[in-house]
Amino acid sequence: MALTESSDTLALGTIAPDFRLVDVVSEKYFSTDELRGNSATVLLFICNHCPYVKHINKELVLAANDYAMNGVQFIAISSNDAIEYPEDSPENMKRVAFEEQYPFPYLYDETQETAHRYGATCTPDIFIFDKLMYLVYHGQFDSSRPSNTLPVTGKDIRMALDALLIHQEIPTKQIHSIGCSIKWKKRA
Q: What does the alpha-carbon distance between residue 93 and residue 95 come to, in Å, rounded to a whole number?
C-alpha cells in the first residue's frame, strides 16, 4: 500500500468534468448530468481493497443516507487496474456495494480517464460540487485513519455539505485526503 495524499489538480471553482461510466450494480451507463444532485454532488474515488476506504465505509453510507433527503447525490467511482488488483474488479465492486449497502451508484472507470480528468490520486479522494457542479470542496472525509483512535464521523464533508445547504461559504483551506494510491495501469 503506497500512502498517497490527494492533489490540487482540480481547482476549487472548476466545473465537474463529464464522464459516462457503468454502474456495476445496475449495469447501466450514467453520465455526470444524469447522476448529479439537486443541491450538491459528492464524488468519491474509492476501491474495495483499500484499508482507508474500508475504515470509513459504514459512516460513508450513513452520510449518503443522511443527505439524500436534502438533494445531495453521492457517487462512487473505482478507477483501479482490476487486472493487477482483482479485488477491485467490477464483479467484486458489485459484491461490496451489496455488502456495504451502498445507497449510491458505484461506477467503474476502466480506462482511468475519469480519474485523470479529476486529478484523483488516492482512495478515498473526495470532491463536493454545488448544484451548478462547481467544485467547492476537495479534501478528507474526517481526521480518522486506520492507524489512529479518532472516531469515524465524516466531520469534514458534513461541515462542507451543511454550509453549502444553508448557502454559507465553505472555507477554502481544506485538509487533503490520505489513502492508498490509485492503481494505475502500466502504459505501453
A: 5
Local confidence band at 7 (pLDDT 50, 70, 90 cut-offs):
confident
Query: What is the pTM assigned to this prediction?
Result: 0.96
CA nearest to 2, candidates 121, 92, 139: 121
Count Cβ atoms below 10 Å from residue 13 Cβ, excluding itself: 10
pLDDT, tens only, 52-76: 999 999 999 999 999 999 999 999 9
Q: Distance (Å, rounded) from C-alpha 77 to C-alpha 43?
A: 8
Instruction: Measure the N-to-C terminal CA separation of the chain; round to a whole number of Å.
Output: 23
* β partners of residue 127: 43, 138
Q: Enter the DSSP assignment of 43.
A: E
